[in-house]
Design brief:
By secondary structure, this protein is of the alpha+beta class. The protein has two domains: about 210 residues, no CATH class; about 90 residues, secretion proteins EscU (name from scop, 3-Layer(aba) Sandwich). It has 13 helices and four strands. Strands 3-2-1-4 form a four-stranded mixed beta sheet, with helices on both faces. The chain is elongated and about 120 Å long. Required for formation of the rod structure in the basal body of the flagellar apparatus. Together with FliI and FliH, may constitute the export apparatus of flagellin.
């Protein structure tokens, strides 16, 4: 289990904030072997499919070129042929390069997403200290593991390539007496066969390395319980975060309050300053309850909703001020206001039916 510098055990998964901060620093799980494997497989497969077609076209075009020049080779025609060959190869190779470019972007996006970290490319002058960096690298466990992995990959790939070629040595020796065209075709197929097998092995290594890099990245980002507490305190203590939380809570409470206005029985108002919505359900409530209240713009909004919902609006400035100042939302009105409010409710059809 990983430990921090103080020796505390990093047993907790990294928080979303820790992961986002690491991402901003350019610290992400990424495997160069996976990218290399995908690009190598794609390149070999594209060349295997495309090169024969490209060579046939080139042969036909060269033949047409010499026919046009009456099969004579001069200084000018040789120069033209060279330029023509370069242009043809560039044009025919362009689709392969375009494919590899798109794949390179795609495989990197798959691993780390579309994100550019400016901090990762900022110049760090402390890296210019060769001795310090050498000692840091030499005694860094992570760097040693990466070095061992690189040496193992070189050994495995070299051994596998030798194994593939070694099995064909007898055939190669026998092919030396064959027609050179047959020999070139055989060698071409052999090269492509070895290349695609090596590319496939590199891809398998890349997939395994990507899984390892993700695991190692998560292990590196793990936090101690104390670090999580400190981060939570820091976020809670941030005035901006607190204000946002309070604002979100106020907005939610205001929204819930406005949804209760259409369910109220009466809205008591001071024409321009106060509005208090009262609900009294004899089957549920012990006494009339304030379900919404507001001043100025909020009071206008409550009255607007009440009118649209058919809720009775009664102007009683003293009662409106008293209710607003002494009763909170979702609280029952005090007994001292029962008589006054009862007289108002008795005038409503809804209350008379009860």
């Amino acid at each position: 289990m990983a430990e921090n510098q103080d020796g505390a055990e990093k047993s907790e998964e990294a928080t979303s904030k820790k992961k986002e901060d690491a991402r901003k620093e350019g610290n992400v799980a990424k495997s160069m072997d996976l990218s290399s494997g995908v690009l190598l497989v794609a390149a070999v497969a594209a060349m295997y499919v495309y090169v024969p077609y490209m060579l046939d076209n080139f042969e036909n075009l060269v033949e047409e070129f010499f026919k046009f020049n009456n099969f004579t080779i001069t200084k000018e025609s040789a120069s033209d042929l060279f330029i023509f060959s370069i242009q043809f190869m560039a044009k025919t190779a362009l689709p392969i390069f375009a494919l590899l470019f798109v794949l390179a972007i795609g495989i990197n996006a798959y691993q780390v997403g579309f994100y550019i970290s400016t901090k990762a490319i900022e110049p760090k002058f402390n890296k210019l200290n060769f001795f310090a960096n050498f000692m840091k690298t030499f005694f860094n466990k992570r760097k040693v593991v990466e070095l061992i992995k690189s040496l193992l990959k070189i050994f495995v790939l070299t051994a596998y390539a030798w194994y593939l070629v070694h099995n064909e040595i007898d055939t190669i020796v026998r092919m030396t007496d064959a027609d050179y065209r047959d020999l070139m075709v055989y060698l071409g197929h052999l090269v492509f066969d070895v290349a695609i097998r090596i590319a496939a092995l590199v891809l398998v290594i890349g997939i395994a390395d990507y899984a390892y890099q993700k695991w190692q990245h998560n292990e590196d980002l793990k936090m101690t319980k104390q670090e999580i507490k400190e981060e939570y305190k820091q976020m809670e203590g941030d005035p901006i975060v607190k204000n946002r939380i309070r604002q979100a809570q106020r907005d939610a409470a205001r929204q819930r309050m406005m949804e209760e206005v259409p369910k109220s029985d009466v809205v008591i108002t001071n024409p321009t300053h106060y509005a208090v919505a009262i609900r009294y359900d004899m089957d549920v409530d012990r006494a009339p309850k304030v379900v919404a209240k507001g001043q100025r713009l909020m009071a206008l909004k409550i009255k607007e909703i009440a009118r649209a919902s058919g809720v009775k609006i009664v102007e009683d400035p003293p009662l409106a001020r008293t209710l607003y100042n002494s009763v909170e939302v979702d609280e029952e009105i005090p007994e001292t206001l029962y008589k006054t409010l009862a007289q108002i409710l008795m005038t409503l059809d809804k209350f008379r039916k009860r």
